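Quick start: read one record
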Amino acid sequence: MATPSAPELQIRPFRPTDESAVITLWQHCDLVRPWNNPQRDIQRKLAVQPELFFVAEMGSALVGTVMCGY
């Protein structure tokens, strides 16, 4: 009997349509601080080296993010 395979982890560049899911993930991981506005953090990253902002998906779920600095 074949076992169902788990969805693969996919890493890809951030897309503007990911913003809500990214912020929700950050909130669930307790990464959002009162003095930081996550929407503004995302906009700042998109203004400087947006190609260094990645998301990780497993199936249709967004499960991780990476913002590389300079």
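Strands lie at 9-13, 53-58, 61-67.
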